[in-house]
Amino acid sequence: MTGQQNQLLTIYGEQFDSRLLVGSALYPSPEIMKSAIIASGAEVVTVSLRRQQTKQAGEDFWSIIKSLGLRVLPNTAGCHSVKEVVTLAKMCREVFATDWIKLELIGDEYNLQPDPIGLLQATEILLKDGFKVLPYCTDDLVLCQRLDELGCEVLMPWGAPIGTGKGLLNPYNLQTIRERLPHQTLIVDAGLGIPSHACQALELGYDAVLLNSAVAGAGCPVTMAKAFKSGVEAGRWSYLAKAMPQKEVAAPSTPTMGMPFWHQS
If you average pLDDT over every residue of the chain, what do you get? Predict the structure, then answer.
């Protein structure tokens, strides 16, 4: 069964109960990060080599991540060229002992929009080198089709630019990608701010969401992580239930035809 139809989330042949993937950056403290990740119920956590400032900090961080027992998804955050992405991906494979890579290749510094041309080039190189690539891209149908043709089994279009919290800026584009690539595992990555954004993504038929700032930057990250967990679950159940059709006129929920009326004399 495809990732969309299956009751479990499928990523490159591995299955997960949770449809919420979370990041490990920007938390007020390592302890809050750990508690928030646990509260989210996520089974996949993203990590970045670039965010470790010292050897000791890196060792402490990695110790916490390993203690959670989750699937690690390294990313290439901060890269601006194909060469840089490929080099960092290979380093991540050695350090984190995984061939999974969340491919990020920034093309514009203002809104951190991915570089579509470089993304395709890097994806082809990494796939041929045995990586399981999860490319972060814009909500562009043609780009997603090209990534699909290269052999990606997971695509991660944005809802909005990274860290903006604006939610799904173009639901039509995202829905079109879902409809045109029914076999793909699709994950909305970036731009979500509140749990209802995640719920909306799952209601569109997306298989999961990936987020970081929305939890790490909240007033109470642990509570927000719980809220996103519920939002994702509600969206998935809503999608499976199939919403009632919308109507242009009101329709009573309790019909009156054939019902007795009581009158006082």
Answer: 91
The answer to whether 172 and 157 have CB atoms below 8 angstroms apart is no
Residues with catalytic roles:
102
Angstrom distances, CA of residue 121 to CA of 14, 21, 60, 113, 171: 26, 26, 35, 16, 27
Question: Which amino acid, one-letter code, is at 45?
Answer: V
pLDDT in tens, 56-70: 556 678 888 889 999
Instruction: Give residue limits of the domains in the chain.
Output: 9-241
| Domain boundaries 9-241, corresponding CATH code | 3.20.20.70
CA torsion sign for 217, 219, 223, 227 is negative
Helix (H, G, I), strand (E, B) or coil at 8: coil
* Rounded CA separation 61/82 (Å): 27
Q: Where are the beta strands (DSSP E) in 40-198?
A: 44-47, 71-74, 100-103, 132-137, 154-157, 185-189
Q: Take residue 121 and report the two structure tokens written for it.
A: 């080039």
How buried is 66 (Cβ within 10 angstroms: 0-12 exposed, 13-18 middle, 19+ buried)? exposed
Q: Which of 97, 98, 89 is nearest to 135 (CA)?
A: 89
